[in-house]
Predict the 3D structure of the following.
Amino acid sequence: MIQMAAVGPREVVQAFRAIGITDVCVETPQEASRAVFDLAKQGCAIIYITEDMAEQIEETISRFRSSALPAVIPIPGPSGVTGYGMASVRANVEKAVGANILFKEEG
């Protein structure tokens, strides 16, 4: 059983192999979606995915939000931070607690 995996472009996810995390190199949203489903089916507990890929497969990721496992966690990709990961954390905290307790509102 794979415990943790990283999904995204080779230049990002290959580094995860050095710390014992399975790397799944993908280049398209279709490949990323398939990888997430396959990893979930294999019982993977934590799936790191680059923010840019996560944004493109939002529908796939939303299928796992109500499940305890796998936890799908957005990470910065080759283009840097897009804000998607932080927005995801903010939404999950608000859903769990009922209020935004972690982040100052921007604007």
In short: The mean pLDDT is 86.
